[in-house]
Amino acid sequence: xxxxxxxxxQAQQLTPFASAxxxxxxxxxxxxxxxxxxxxxxxxxxxxxAARGKRKDDLSxxxxxxxxxxxxxxxxxxxxxxxxxxxxxxxxxxxxFFYSFIRSSYIKRLTLKLPPGSKPPALSTAAELSLGxxxxxxxxxxxxxxxxxxxxxQVGRSVQNSSQSSQDERPVDESLLAVAREIVREDGVTGLWxxxxxxxxxxxxxxxxxxxxxxxxxLLLLASAANGKLTxxxxxxxxxxxxxxxxxxTYPYIMAKVRIxxxxxxxxxxxxxxxxxxxxxxxxxxxxxxxxxxxxxRVLRKEGFxxxxxxxxxxxxxxVLSQALLFVSxxxxxxxxxxxxxxxxxxxxxx
Length: 351
Known about the structure:
Elements: H1 2-5, H2 16-33, H3 35-47, H4 61-72, H5 74-77, H6 81-112, H7 125-160, H8 176-187, H9 196-201, H10 204-224, H11 232-262, H12 264-273, H13 285-288, H14 292-303, H15 312-348
């Protein structure tokens, strides 16, 4: 996404492939740094509605991290790490690739309508958001199965089976393939696409993030007459602000998507109807088909508007740190991607 990040000389313009690689590597790096926070915020989002008896302090980021460490050790902080990194890489690669490709194609079409030698106009905020949403929708379709598996692994049996007696707990294979087989066994192949509808709604999240970031970046560069590059500190602050705004706007659907993928929404439905069963028990078809809108309506009735934002502080802490690190590191990863491209071109051009 070098066309967004900084004006590069035409001879050194990153291709969509290289730009996607830079974005994906940067995303993996930033998410790996804050991964324990990712596990903690997922646990909070899943357990908040069922854990009615818990104090609010018990669902804070620090309390959840300490609870995971006491129950599962340091390994609990990195539960599902491999699947999450695979999901992060594939999701970010697909997003940056589609975004770079769609945006560059759109700019080329605009340039063709201008006199030769004219500089293409800056894209409007609406255009940036539309392009980002389109790229996000395409990437969601191809990558959400890994996201479902990663969410199940992060939650773990300790939370999923909280309603079952401790005597039923036995060593369980929680590898990527084992979880995938379990999902297919419970819900069929379509179970791998649980949360696709709220996921489509959430395509506006990166669109808002990058749209706001690029708009603020262009304003700062114009005001400071800089050489087309922001300092790492400024990039960090812009990334943090952009991601915070996007998270606040879209959080109810973020929470709904996580609960649907972890199947905690099924347990809530059964509890409300006084039915036996749970995630690994027998659930009726209506419980299995509970959607994001129905889940949000139940939360609204039982907890009020505040219930939609349960765990948002944990989401913001993780998302802001991760996104800010991504914006800061992506510049360096773009340099590395460009160097790899040059070396690859030289290597393949040898007779």
